[in-house]
Amino acid sequence: MWHISFSTFALCLLLLEIPGGNTTDYRIDALSTIDILNRTCKRCAEESTDFSYNFCRTSLDAIPTSHIVNLHGLAVIGMELALQNATNTISSIKSLLSVETLDPFALACLQDCLELYLNATVSLIDGVAAFLSEHYSVANEKVSRVMKSSTTCEGLFAEKKGEVCPLARENYNLYQLCNLALCIIHLV
């Protein structure tokens, strides 16, 4: 289950009032608060072959504030979800690093993934700040870097034949959450 902080909730409420470049097609009307989710996820899925409409809907539906924000708010929620994923993955990696039965190759990969995820959290925080400052290209670059980190972590384990990445689900989720945030940043 996803968790969103009170500060994020308050921020999203403030974002309801922020006018944004080309977002008039995405404004929420009084009759349909969920329509923005459908339209945004659908449009992103149409624009990218590796974007998952179902993942998008499930992720955004899980956050109550996503039903009351505009497109800017959805972008922040996407980045916050990616940050929550990265933070949770750091905890998972630290737990895995304490497992004594892992071979040295897997331990080295996990150590590298830990560094990637630690850097990802910083990039996501910077990305949110850039987005809120309307530096959309900087936000795009920061989130793109995090997206690449998830595939890099996955690829580390693939360097040894037969090695299975214990973070496959986390890497996939981070990739999809970044993909979601990037698409919405692009739409803004």
UniProtKB/TrEMBL annotation:
CC per GO annotation: extracellular region
Q: Per its UniProt record, what SMART domains does this chain match?
A: PMEI
Per UniProt, residues of the Pectinesterase inhibitor domain are 32-184
Q: Which GO terms describe its molecular function?
A: enzyme inhibitor activity
| Signal peptide start-end | 1-23
The answer, when asked if Repeat is one of the entry's keywords, is no
Pfam families according to UniProt: PMEI
Q: Which UniProt keywords apply?
A: Disulfide bond, Signal
The record ties this protein, via InterPro entries, to: Invertase/methylesterase_inhib, Pectinesterase_inhib_dom, Pla_a_1-like
Describe the family membership recorded for this protein in Swiss-Prot or TrEMBL.
Belongs to the PMEI family.
The protein's name: Pectinesterase inhibitor domain-containing protein
Q: Which organism is it from?
A: Turnera subulata
